[in-house]
Amino acid sequence: MLFKTLCEYLEKLSLTSKRLEITSILAKLFKEASSCEIYETVFLSLGTLNPQYKAIKFNIADKMMVRILSKAYTIPERDILKKYKELGDLGKTAELFSESFVKQETEVLEVYQKLKRIAMEEGAGSQERKVHLMSMLLKSLDRIGAKYACKIILGTMRLGFSEITVIEALSWMEKDDKTLKKQIEEKYRIYPNIGFIAKEFKENGLFGIKDIHIETGVPILSARCQRVDTAKDIIKRHKTSAIEYKYDGTRVQAHLDRNKLSPAPLVKTFTRNLEETTNMFPDIVSAILDSVKAQSAILDCEAIGVDPKTGEFVPFQITIKRKRKHNVKKTAKEIPLKLIVFDILFYNRKSQIHLPFVERRKILESIIKESDKIIIAPEIVVDNTNKFMEVFNTAIEKGLEGIVAKDLTASYTVGSRGYAWIKFKREEKGTLEDTLEPVVLGYYRGAGQRAKFGIGAFLVGVLDEKEDNFKTIAKIGTGLTDEQWVRLKRRCDKIKLLEKPKNYIVPKELFCDIWCEPNILTSIRADDITISPIHTAGYALRFPRLVDFRDDISTKDATTVQEFKNLYKLWKK
Ligand code: ATP
């Protein structure tokens, strides 16, 4: 397929916000792509080159793109900048300056390879090489091609869909309906490489993806916790429940494979958002190698910093300092991590996710040699609320945020919130003390006192996973310090958008003065959740106030509409 053809589909996608229409356009695109180019087509349409766990960054910012355009079209940088300011988008700027006479015959695969080469350039002189390669590529593309090549590189595609919509479109491609979505999604959850799945599916339908299994080196979507109202509810659901402390560190999925040598055995760690973090955690890597007595294993864990002097766990804000690319060794010495392993998903070449938790736990106990660097999460099995509250209160006395209750008979709930795991936190005792994590969609300039900051309130929304969009839940104008207002405005301005993105479902009366990318995650507390005729989530927060910004997790972790509705029900009980 020609890159131009792909771009024409992308253009159509950019003109609609209707999910059914997006799915149908994608289904046609995937039908037209051959099985040799569907991997590339899928990722390019998502505005990337690879799955998250193998992400490669272009490291080309706006300023550099201005230079690239100037070189490609031999136009002074100041003229490019002027147009960019006017249009607010470098893709559109490239479209405008590119030569109308270029007859673009470049194939999708060729453009993909060239983009990949640009992204892979690193080391001395790499900036110059990137400028050169990208300007050459742009010269060979026609208007629409130039527009989308720039958008992909700058990460500004904003077509308003994610892997979930791609999965649905694959079903439509094959069956003209969404009946295969569930089966494809099941594979995606254990092997989140949507390009690879699309290729296998395109070649042989469901039969083609039948043999996609859990593999070391490829992260699995993590299980999440549900909430309930009372201890009684936990016992009612689980009958017998294994209670573990809820450690306030960072989730780590650790992979070990002593048969995959390159030349050392494979050890990799991933975050809950499928980002690889192996290089950040050399102490975890060595703990896994030394203490896990298995040929291969995938472990679900929480890593938490320890004060080297006292041996006590450090607060979350300190642990999170370990998530860095530079000064790794020094920080590892200052804040050593302890790995608390609480589940096993794969052991000696076999998936374990369908086993009941009690069986998975037995495997864990047989293969982990505990040390000061790695332990198995201690658990206490309870079958009545008195005993439960005893364990819970001990957790609180120890300064932990709560407990996670685990159903001994349940399999691992890959990539979703199930009642197999129920969290019960200090605050979650029927009050509205728990926080929500909505995303900032934009801000209002503000008047009076606040006018001096240029921001008076901001709009937050929750993620609708089913519809792949954001719905509003509150306009927030209080609870921020002056410094936080200034910081929030600065952050929003850095990622501001010229118009409301299609996937922000916002009533007219709440339209922001400045819209921004959904990249700022907040932690919000409120007095209540009420049914709302205005907010598009259907419910709204009463007296919402900012607790903090959540820079440690990605917007994929934002509170969802479904969770928000559950909270409403929970708190109304
Ligand atoms: P929260 O903000 O309450 O941590 P969340 O929405 O980020 O919630 P959940 O899936 O609801 O995530 O809560 C489980 C999180 O708690 C896991 O992602 C994990 O990082 C952490 N955790 C700490 N201790 C445990 C444990 N023993 N078992 C499972 N998860 C644990």
UniProtKB/TrEMBL annotation:
| Record Gene3D superfamilies | DNA ligase, ATP-dependent, N-terminal domain, DNA ligase/mRNA capping enzyme, Nucleic acid-binding proteins
Q: What is its EC number?
A: 6.5.1.1
What SUPFAM superfamilies is this protein classified in? Answer: ATP-dependent DNA ligase DNA-binding domain (SSF117018), DNA ligase/mRNA capping enzyme, catalytic domain (SSF56091), Nucleic acid-binding proteins (SSF50249)
Name the Pfam families for this protein.
DNA_ligase_A_C, DNA_ligase_A_M, DNA_ligase_A_N
* Gene Ontology molecular function, alphabetical: ATP binding; DNA binding; DNA ligase (ATP) activity
**Origin: domain of life:** Bacteria
Q: What is this protein called?
A: DNA ligase
Residue ranges spanning the membrane: these are none
Tell me the first and last residues of the signal peptide. Answer: none
Residues in ATP-dependent DNA ligase family profile domain copies: 330-464
The entry's keywords:
ATP-binding, Cell cycle, Cell division, DNA damage, DNA recombination, DNA repair, DNA replication, Ligase, Nucleotide-binding
Q: Give the source species.
A: candidate division WWE3 bacterium CG23_combo_of_CG06-09_8_20_14_all_40_14
Catalysed reaction(s) here are: ATP + (deoxyribonucleotide)n-3'-hydroxyl + 5'-phospho-(deoxyribonucleotide)m = (deoxyribonucleotide)n+m + AMP + diphosphate
